[in-house]
DNA sequence: TGTTGCTTTATTGTTGACAATGTGGCTCTG
DNA sequence: CAGAGCCACATTGTCAACAATAAAGCAACA
């Protein structure tokens, strides 16, 4: 029970990272008391926390039953990426048409951190930073409503990427990290250069690229647990 | 303390209607105990309620101070309408390209109810139904993410419309009601007729029309209370 | 052996009492 | 009389015990 509400955000982020890093597999039950003991928070706080996580669709809150790590379906994944394309294209359009030197610098600094994360091989950090790059664009575009929407789906997006990037690491991972980052670079150039249409297109391509990397099979609708068991190997 | 969670939604809606109908003016403080007594709910439930309202930006939750009915600024209003245009254009595009007879019927039935509300002069109901028409389009378009975004901003939109439609009823209100409804009609025709581009354009025009009706002055940044006092007369 | 119903147990949901905090009024002083 | 500091009250925030519910285990029966 340290510094209250601040701590709440910290714990939120720790749980989020655990989910994205697949330390907490989808479907895992999150018991209130366990979390309470683990993080030294009262059950009341844990409750708030779970509520927030469920708002962001990272956990599934089943009444009288418990909280479970969400398992977004391929359909949800596609839906989310469609929404992202729509929203982020608009945000990039805004930002590209009015990007200042100061804003460019902020984006550059962020990219630098992304680059470091990749070099250090910190996959979890990389995913988070990659998401935050998009959020930064929203913030700088100064469109509070659209940006708040982004805040709602980007964590979900990260979960999806973690889920469907496939445990089969056949040529995927490392390449993808670099690819994503270099796409961010190109995006930054277009934005800073006020090449509006090009920036928009790059953003759309970038999101398409991420989605295309995912292994979104038609989703065998059968026993979901089986799928997870097989996914272990 | 009747039927628990169901009641929560009911109360939520009652408060929402009170806000939109200007029975609760922006800035009004909502005391937990008052609400608790008024609706026969425990303070815990009231707390949840206020949390939900604050998520939808209908009330402002100030820590250790209280909950206040939100007063969206003209900037927020514009931002929200921009977001609506972006999202609803997309939803209409989706729906118009795949609208079935059954879906057309649902929309028609809704319009009928809107029409009745206007005839009965029930302004509060009319605003709610008008919002719900847009939500229905989202639902039928079968785009969960974008539709959930709509759910978040349409109540806010309604508050804004109520706030800025101006107390001066000079030729506005009644006309506007009918106008909005007839625009909904035209929209429905285009959607049901699968005239995709036309439907999209009608939606954008419609939203522009609503925004244009608002009296969004540059917002005298001075003492906000004064503005409200003057608005009383 | 498999299934149904019951009992126990583990977990979530709710409430009321208590603690923390902010606000307004009062007094005292310059 | 104006202003600062203090005190009391009103209100929100937190917690811990209790109630309600669902899951798990068990036993009896087919």
Map the helices and strands.
The structure is a homodimer.
Chain A: H1 4-20, E1 29-30, H2 32-39, H3 43-55, E2 59-62, E3 66-69, H4 74-96, H5 101-119, H6 123-141, H7 144-164, H8 173-192, H9 196-213, H10 224-231
Chain A binds a DNA duplex (30 and 30 nucleotides) through helix 3.
Q: Briefly note the structural class of the backbone of chain A.
A: mainly alpha
- Report the total helices of chain A: 10
Largest interface: A-B, 19 and 19 residues
| Poorly predicted tracts of residues of chain A | 1-5, 167-174, 219-233
Principal-axis shape of chain A equals globular
Strand residue percentage of chain A: under 5%
Radius of gyration of chain A, in Å, reads 18 Å
Give me the strand/helix succession of chain A.
Answer: HEHHEEHHHHHHH
Binned, the helix content of chain A reads over 70%
**Oligomeric state of this protein:** homodimer
Strand order of the largest sheet of chain A: 1-3-2
Q: Outline of this structure?
A:
The structure is a homodimer of 233-residue chains. Chain A is mostly helical. Helices cover 71% and strands 4% of the residues of chain A.
What does this protein look like?
- The structure is a homodimer of 233-residue chains.
- Chain A is mainly alpha-helical and 233 residues long.
- Chain A is built from ten helices and three strands; from the N terminus they run αβααββααααααα.
- Chain A has a three-stranded antiparallel sheet with strand order 1-3-2.
- In chain A, a hairpin with a 3-residue loop joins strand 2 (59-62) and strand 3 (66-69).
- The termini of chain A are far apart.
- At the A-B interface, helix 4 and helix 7 of A face helix 4 and helix 7 of B.
- The structure holds a DNA duplex (30 and 30 nucleotides).
